[in-house]
Design goal:
CATH architecture: 2-Layer Sandwich
Shape: globular
CATH topology: Beta-Lactamase
Number of domains: 1
Strand content: 15-25%
Order of helices and strands: HHEEHHHEEH
Largest sheet: 4 strands, antiparallel
Amino acid sequence: MSSSEVRELEGQEARLTLPRFTYEDAWTLGTLLVSLARERRAPVAIDVRRGAQQLFHCALPGSSADNDAWIDRKRRVVERYGESSFLVGARFRAKGTTFEASSRLDPDRYAAHGGSFPIGVEGAGVIGSVTVSGLPQAEDHALVVEALERLLSSYGADAG
């Protein structure tokens, strides 16, 4: 992972800061992810949280309890670093090491693999997370980014 890829991931997080995040928004984001995953027949589990509260969870065919464990591990990275689990792992790789080797965190509790993304709200910072598990890490991450882009564009439609 190069420094330009790290900058690209940082840019995604800056661009995908939301104007608000309500319970209804959590439902919208979760159901967007379910729709996208079903279209692709993706065997994923999906989790949306605000703080410690789980606002949405869905497990699609082909996913397992193992995906829920991955969700927890990736989500803990977002909660600790305030950045996507993919970005945190990319930062370590850009330094020529790995998260597992250098973070000093228990790999049974933390995983800097793609798929968990901070829910950032303008003026409030990171207030939660959205996580997908079941695909290769870059695909988990891309699915979350696509859903957040759609959610963000829907806010513009609400204003009109």
